[in-house]
């Protein structure tokens, strides 16, 4: 075979072997995504499927517009400064039509209110990243701890691996329903257990109903559900670290902590990076748990980007807007990935 | 691609489902496909018996029913319509009628069902949009206050009547006294555990209306401003929030058996719970009108109704089935079999449970008197979802006025977006 | 072996502490499962009566199999079960072939554009399925398919209401390809070069060199894709209105729809979960070793 014919043959094989997968990805992932992108410039609705008219950047404008109002204090009751209701101000002023308060802060005597056309999206964005910041370290630390534990050479560890892995095989819908019950303020086992352990000093916590506890509760449950799988990946990493390194450290008189810090962690660098990425991607797509357990409440405290997209797109039948949420979100994540890769390249130089 | 098609073909051979198109059967009957939402077992089996009676009553049509989960019912209809696979007959939740009409999924029933038959139905059982009739209800569901006579006697409360429902002040007073007895952690069960927008809109819009507010301005149907966030609506929001603040209602009940088990003294729920409640409370059970919050008692009317798809090849057959369902004896049958409220006086008169003196007559009277439909607009889903989130936020402590303002803005935008394209003209009737 | 390791050096007290910790954690990990299992044998009243005590997790008191009788007797759970098994096994089976071949091509063959494709894969990982489900529905509703009508095989206008609409879109999977790709890259190049010198074709190298040394990653991908398919919910709800192709998860929703008999729901949930858990327990040594041996190390 000549070199060029060989190359042509190789190309044909390459095409043949990657073809089916690339075809599938194109047809069932890339094209629908491009379709979603195209929808963002229309007013397409779910039920009236032939309604899609071109509306330009309207969806993006509604999603991303931000503004502000500055208010002077008015003489209030009891000497405290009072402010006019922001909603009265925004609804009266055509400049602020469609804007709703997102958050506010004091600026000297004045009050500044940040307005957004879709404050729930901004809240959802913050909640989603907040969730990722909670669940990624928690889940990875839990997984690493479990991996160290079932790798310690103790009897029964094979069985325990299965036990720790078991939540992974349970459907997220099922897990969420069970935990909703466990988290229940009055009848849930978690509060009963807390009360028992604290001899009644800890009153019933409204886990899923409190703004401060709802997202952490969901994060805790999610970490619990997923840690088993990352445990297996860490186990793989641990078994790749040479025993000689540990022995050498021991001879140098290193404590268990020093060995962990100086041998285990460096040895797991690749694994940790992989686990972090995989966990973060899953965390940023949070939807099922929220939908089953809190419906985004209390007061949007657990609303996430995907939840917002489904609410607007499917439940309110505005698929053009739902798609816009998803596309903007995708753009943000892609930018983050690119930034992370750029940083990594700079580091490794 | 070749491999894929091969696989698809293999799978199709093994498992694929026959299409939903109409076809002539071996027995010479013409097949009509029918989709219904998944309701309770009782209602569904009552529906199956009705189909069997229809088939026995004539020899031209056969009906193939299919039950779909409620969760994705709308999406299923949308997907089927895109694929040209809409069934001939389908159930539609009454507030979705406008949306389906706008999308061109439904065929007007004018002319297919005699005006005299339609006239005897309650207005809430007629799904109208832009002057045309698109769906008919064979039955309705209705909400009431369920309580135990003994609980009211204990606190010396007046038993309300159709003519004199409780006033807001009375209702508040009774709930406070029930709470004060110490027997109930949360005296009133509002089914707040239900995570679906449908329930919250269905249950609490009537309260909003009784306060004097509404989801949209019914005069124009073009906006919510003033109706959903006006002074009356704000009073409703404040009161609704106070139910949770005062500990009269649980923010999220662990199950819906609070009344059955006696954890709650009172439940605001639908007639479908009556059998369980009768079993639990026996003669002690009272079925009462919801309170009059100022502008008269209101109960949500319009349940799941029947419609004919725009692509149905045999609308005459489908209409024959609907006419059969609307016969007074069939209405009565459904009412007795499934415990659903009849939608005509004639139907109620033939029913054991709903005729004058029947054990469920109270529901029929309540609906005759207080039923009001949800607004017929293609933006209903968005309206419902916005109202649902406003109520949830209010229950969770958000300022009611702000929450209702947010909902109002969302609704106004949704109505503007949904527009109201003229209803499509009925296609030619084949056959 | 790790920091907590090597028998010789472990003191008895450390060993004891580790055991205690492992058991405690085991309880934490297994209690919702026990709760589900126990509740599935109880009436609502019994569930609430026991919710405050250890009895919530231990089958004591009045137990009943009525929930299972109800779940098995109402609705076509066995039919749905079979559907789920078919969907899961076919998707996983086809997925292993298609995705590993693609990864092989990306990792081991030289062709122009493969680096671009590889980095595109990483971007595709980020697209959540929820974001494309509606456009994908619009698409499959218009794809020509095959079906039966009046006993004859016919061309249908869409994929709705079939088993393959739940299979084909999920065969090619960016994450699976990514896992295969990572693993294949770590296999020493000398192996296939030796084979090429012996005159092997690329496909022979794939079959006789790459696949035999990659069993672990095949196991990993099977577990991940299998679980995802078994638990799929949103998609079948939209595309499969009929009962004949309905999977188990959607069947369960029917019970949430009109019951708050927690016992029924838990019985259904148990029926969904136990087969997967049983499969894991039976194959767990193999699973665990496979994943440990697999290249999912980044």
From TrEMBL, chain A:
It is found in: Cell membrane. Pfam families: BPD_transp_1. GO terms for cellular component: plasma membrane. It is a multi-pass membrane protein. PROSITE patterns: ABC_TM1 (PS50928). Residues 125-340 form the ABC transmembrane type-1 domain. Its main location: membrane. It comes from the Bacteria. The chain crosses the membrane at residues 21-41, 129-150, 162-182, 214-236, 271-290, 319-339. GO terms for biological process: transmembrane transport. The keyword Kinase does not apply. Keywords: Cell membrane, Membrane, Transmembrane, Transmembrane helix, Transport. Belongs to the binding-protein-dependent transport system permease family. This is Sugar ABC transporter permease. It comes from Sphingomonas glacialis.
From TrEMBL, chain C:
One of its GO terms (cellular component) is plasma membrane. It is a multi-pass membrane protein. The chain crosses the membrane at residues 12-35, 80-104, 116-143, 163-181, 265-283. Coiled coil: none annotated. InterPro entries: MetI-like, MetI-like_sf. Pfam families: BPD_transp_1. The keyword Lyase does not apply. One of its GO terms (biological process) is transmembrane transport. It is found in: Cell inner membrane; Cell membrane. Keywords: Cell inner membrane, Cell membrane, Membrane, Transmembrane, Transmembrane helix, Transport. The keyword Transmembrane helix applies. Residues 81-283 form the ABC transmembrane type-1 domain. The complex is composed of two ATP-binding proteins (UgpC), two transmembrane proteins (UgpA and UgpE) and a solute-binding protein (UgpB). Belongs to the binding-protein-dependent transport system permease family. Part of the ABC transporter complex UgpBAEC involved in sn-glycerol-3-phosphate (G3P) import. Probably responsible for the translocation of the substrate across the membrane. This is sn-glycerol-3-phosphate transport system permease protein UgpE. The gene is ugpE.
């Amino acid at each position: 075979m000549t070199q060029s014919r060989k190359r042509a043959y190789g190309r044909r094989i390459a095409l043949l072997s990657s073809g089916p997968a690339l075809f599938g990805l194109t047809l069932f992932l890339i094209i629908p995504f491009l379709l979603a992108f195209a929808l963002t410039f229309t007013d397409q609705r779910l039920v009236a499927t032939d309604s899609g008219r071109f509306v330009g950047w309207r969806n993006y404008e509604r999603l991303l517009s931000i503004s502000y109002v500055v208010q002077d204090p008015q003489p209030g009751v009891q000497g405290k400064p009072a402010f006019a209701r922001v909603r009265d101000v925004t609804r009266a002023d055509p400049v602020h039509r469609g804007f709703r308060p997102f958050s506010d802060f004091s600026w000297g005597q004045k009050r500044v209110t940040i307005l957004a056309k879709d404050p729930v999206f901004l809240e959802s964005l913050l909640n989603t990243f907040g969730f990722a910041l909670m669940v990624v370290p928690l889940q990875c630390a839990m997984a690493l701890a479990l991996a160290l534990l079932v790798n310690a050479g103790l009897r029964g560890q094979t069985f325990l691996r299965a036990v720790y892995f078991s939540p992974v095989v349970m459907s997220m819908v099922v897990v969420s329903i069970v935990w909703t019950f466990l988290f229940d303020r009055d009848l849930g086992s978690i509060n009963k257990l807390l009360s028992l352990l604290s001899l009644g000093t800890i009153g019933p916590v409204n886990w899923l109903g409190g703004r401060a506890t709802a997202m952490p509760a969901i994060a805790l449950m999610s970490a619990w559900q997923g840690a088993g799988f990352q445990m297996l990946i860490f186990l793989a990493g641990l078994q790749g670290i040479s025993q000689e390194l540990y022995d050498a450290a021991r001879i140098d008189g290193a404590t268990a902590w020093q060995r962990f810090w100086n041998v285990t962690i460096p040895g797991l660098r690749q694994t940790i990076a992989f686990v972090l990425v995989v966990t973060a991607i899953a965390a940023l797509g949070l939807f099922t748990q929220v939908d089953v357990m809190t419906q985004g409440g209390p007061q949007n405290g657990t609303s996430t980007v995907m939840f917002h997209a489904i609410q607007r797109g499917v439940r309110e039948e505005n698929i053009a807007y739902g798609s816009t949420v998803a596309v903007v979100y995708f753009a943000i994540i892609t930018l983050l990935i690119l930034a992370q890769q750029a940083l990594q390249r700079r580091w490794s130089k | 691609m070749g491999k894929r098609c091969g696989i698809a073909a293999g799978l199709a051979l093994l498992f694929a489902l026959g299409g939903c198109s109409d076809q002539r059967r071996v027995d010479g009957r013409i097949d009509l496909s029918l989709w219904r939402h998944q309701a309770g077992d009782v209602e569904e089996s009552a529906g199956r018996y009705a189909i069997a009676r229809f088939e026995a009553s004539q020899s031209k049509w056969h009906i193939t029913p299919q039950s779909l989960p409620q969760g994705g019912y709308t999406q299923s209809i949308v997907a089927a319509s895109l694929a040209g696979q809409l069934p001939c007959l389908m159930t539609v939740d009454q507030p979705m009628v406008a949306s389906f009409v706008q999308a061109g999924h439904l065929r007007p029933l004018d002319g297919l069902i005699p005006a005299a038959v339609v006239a005897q139905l309650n207005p809430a059982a007629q799904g109208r949009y832009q002057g045309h009739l698109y769906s008919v209800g064979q039955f309705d569901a209705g909400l009431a206050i369920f309580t135990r006579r003994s609980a009211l006697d204990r606190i010396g409360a007046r038993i309300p009547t159709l003519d004199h429902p409780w006033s807001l002040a009375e209702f508040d007073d009774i709930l406070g006294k029930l709470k004060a007895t110490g027997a109930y952690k949360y005296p009133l069960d509002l089914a707040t555990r239900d995570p679906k927008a449908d329930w919250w809109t269905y249950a609490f819009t009537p309260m909003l209306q009784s306060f004097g507010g509404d989801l949209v301005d019914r005069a124009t149907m073009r906006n919510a401003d003033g109706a959903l966030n006006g002074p009356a609506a704000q009073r409703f929001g404040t009161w609704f929030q106070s139910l949770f603040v005062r500990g009269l209602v649980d923010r999220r009940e662990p199950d819906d058996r609070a009344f059955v088990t006696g954890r709650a003294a009172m439940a605001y729920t639908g007639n479908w719970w009556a059998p369980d409640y009768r079993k639990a409370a026996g003669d002690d059970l009272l079925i009462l009108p919801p309170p009059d919050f100022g502008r008269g008692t209101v109960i949500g009317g319009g349940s799941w109704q029947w419609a004919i798809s725009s692509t149905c090849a045999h609308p005459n057959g489908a209409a024959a089935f609907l006419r059969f369902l609307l016969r007074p004896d069939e209405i009565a049958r459904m009412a007795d079999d499934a415990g659903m409220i009849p939608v005509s006086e004639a139907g109620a008169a033939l029913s054991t449970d709903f005729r004058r003196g029947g054990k469920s007559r109270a529901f029929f009277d309540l609906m005759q008197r207080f039923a009001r439909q949800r607004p017929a607009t293609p933006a209903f889903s968005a309206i419902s979802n916005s109202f649902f989130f406003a109520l949830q936020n209010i229950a969770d402590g958000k300022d009611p006025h702000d929450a209702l303002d947010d909902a109002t803005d969302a609704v106004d935008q949704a109505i503007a977006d949904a527009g109201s394209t003229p209803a499509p003209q009925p296609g030619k009737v084949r056959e | 072996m790790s920091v907590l390791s090597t028998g010789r050096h472990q003191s008895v007290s450390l060993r004891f502490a580790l055991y205690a910790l492992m058991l405690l954690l085991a309880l934490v990990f297994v209690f919702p499962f026990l709760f589900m299992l126990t509740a599935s044998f109880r009436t609502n009243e019994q569930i609430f009566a026991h919710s405050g005590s250890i009895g919530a997790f231990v089958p004591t008191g009045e137990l009943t199999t009525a929930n299972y009788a109800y779940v098995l007797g109402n609705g076509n759970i066995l039919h749905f079960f079979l559907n789920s098994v078919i969907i899961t096994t076919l998707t996983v089976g086809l997925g292993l072939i298609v995705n590993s071949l693609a990864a092989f091509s990306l990792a081991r063959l030289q062709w122009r554009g493969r680096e671009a494709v590889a980095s595109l894969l990483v971007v595709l990982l980020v697209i959540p399925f929820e974001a494309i489900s509606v456009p994908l529905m619009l698409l499959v509703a218009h794809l020509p398919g095959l079906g039966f009508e009046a006993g004859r095989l016919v061309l249908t206008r869409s994929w709705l209401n079939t088993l393959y609409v739940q299979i084909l879109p999920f065969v090619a999977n960016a994450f699976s390809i990514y896992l295969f790709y990572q693993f294949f890259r770590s296999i020493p190049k000398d192996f296939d070069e030796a084979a090429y010198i012996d005159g092997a074709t690329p496909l022979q190298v794939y079959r006789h060199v790459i696949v035999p040394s990659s069993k672990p990653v095949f196991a990993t991908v099977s577990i991940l894709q299998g679980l995802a398919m078994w638990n799929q919910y949103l998609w079948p709800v939209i595309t499969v209105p009929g009962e004949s192709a309905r999977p188990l998860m959607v069947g369960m929703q029917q019970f949430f729809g009109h019951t708050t008999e927690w016992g029924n729901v838990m019985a259904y949930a148990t029926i969904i979960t136990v087969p997967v858990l049983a499969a894991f327990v039976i194959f767990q040594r193999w699973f665990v070793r496979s994943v440990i041996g697999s290249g999912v190390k980044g």
